[in-house]
Amino acid sequence: MTAYSSCQAAPSVIIATYKREALLDRCLAALAAQTLAAAEVIVVDDASTDRTPEVLRAWAARSSLPLRIERLAQNGGPARARNHGIRLAGGAWVAFTDDDCEPQPEWLAALAANAAAAPETVAGIGGRVLPAAPGLIADYMTLHRILDPPPSCSYIVTANCIYRRSVLLEVGGFDQMVREPGGEDPGLSFAVRRAGHSLAYCQEAVVRHHYRESALNFLRTFYRYGRGCRLVMG
């Protein structure tokens, strides 16, 4: 992995969150422990009705994390929330993780180093997604690398990725027709590739993902994936 130069501007980080106060708190703790500090961490609260605003205010008051809090008045889904963050971001590269993920300490440094070394044709880079805890569903998702970029790098997911902000603006960001999680992130990848750009993989960039260990949630997840992909692929 190419070393990241301190003379280059660090990436922005964007998290869309909705009613996951405890998981969001863990995610922010992991971002505060990064070996490379983000230029900014933009958290877009998609009109949460739990204690998410209190969690965010507490982080803003007690931490040196470069936190920017944006709260949307109405829930519109993660695609809309992330697009809001993209418009606000100041970094040339924008990294994404999800509120149910815990990026490992070298996560942002690894993505930033790969971004700095990437040819102009590469618009996005995805990393490795491992489980935060063992379980049947976590083991299945990890064994089949459901959230990892495929060998073809045809798509990357927002649990663990970084994009050139200019390309995100070029393709119009995430498809806001997808109102629930699932499909909006591969849809963005497909749009980026249709615009003539390529994607890459960085195995050193690792996040730990909290899976919901119930059969019903497993079925709902794959239903949302299928429905979202159908929407973005027309």
Question: What does this molecule look like?
Answer:
This protein is of the alpha/beta class. The protein has one domain (12-233): Spore Coat Polysaccharide Biosynthesis Protein SpsA, Chain A (Alpha-Beta Complex). The protein is 38% helix and 21% strand. Helix 2 links the parallel strand 2 and strand 3 (67-71). The longest helix has 19 residues, at 215-233. The mean pLDDT is 89.
Task: Give the SSE map.
Elements: E1 12-17, H1 21-32, E2 40-45, H2 52-62, E3 67-71, H3 78-88, E4 93-96, E5 101-103, H4 107-117, E6 122-131, H5 136-143, E7 161-164, H6 165-171, H7 184-194, E8 198-209, H8 215-233
Parallel strand pairs: 1-2, 1-4, 2-3, 6-8
Antiparallel strand pairs: 4-7, 5-8, 6-7
Helix pairs in contact: 1-2, 7-8
Observed structural traits:
234 residues, 21% strand, Spore Coat Polysaccharide Biosynthesis Protein SpsA, Chain A, alpha/beta, globular, eight-stranded mixed beta sheet, 38% helix
